Amino acid sequence: MSPDEFIAELWGYARELPMGQHPWFQGILEHRWTRHQIILAEIQHYLRVRTNPIFFGYIAVNAVAEKRYGLMEVVLENFMEELSGPRTHVDVMLQFLEEGGISREAADRTEPAPGTMAAIEMIIGCCQRRSALEGVALLSFVESQLGGSDGVSAQVYRELTGYYGFSARAAET
Question: Where are the domains of the chain?
Fold first, then answer.
């Protein structure tokens, strides 16, 4: 499958269920979840996010093997963002869990739910066995679905800090 065909396939999935209509986000926006349920779900989110360096590692290896030098720079920049800097993606996740009374150690001891494990395995499989460009496309695709200031993430942020009473710091997740 060519990269263009793969991207078209992903957008086809997106049109079937836009992120704003995902049951998880709808549950937050429609206040169907309890604060405790959201904290438990964020543990699952953390379990997936902590594997991001694995995804970027596979993409980086593929970019080197494919001699995609421009792409290597982008991948390495993202890889370093996941692992270093003032606050990593995992650090932001831990802010939320901390406010919910969950330590990193407790989150690390949590078993991934079947959907979480399936997502991790699917992402690893794509990043490991497809081209570097396809791996980047997969990860970028999810981010693009979350939207900007009017997207589902902004709406969820408002509900987390408003209706559910989480701090702005915690809701950065």
Answer: 34-145
Q: Which residue intervals of 84-113 are DSSP H helices? A: 89-99, 104-109
> CB of 90 within 8 A of CB of 50?
yes
Burial code of 41-53, b = ≥16 C-beta within 10 A, e = fewer? Answer: bbbbbbbbbbbbb
Tally of CB atoms within 10 A around 145: 19
- Cα separation, 16 vs 114, in Å, equals 22
Q: Give the model confidence (pLDDT) of 119-145 as tens digits.
A: 999 999 999 999 998 898 888 877 777
| Count of Cβ atoms closer than 10 Å to residue 107 Cβ | 21
- CATH class (in words) of the domain with range 34-145: mainly alpha
Q: What is the DSSP string of 26-52?
A: HHHHTT-S-HHHHHHHHHHHHHHHTTH
**pTM of this prediction?**
0.85
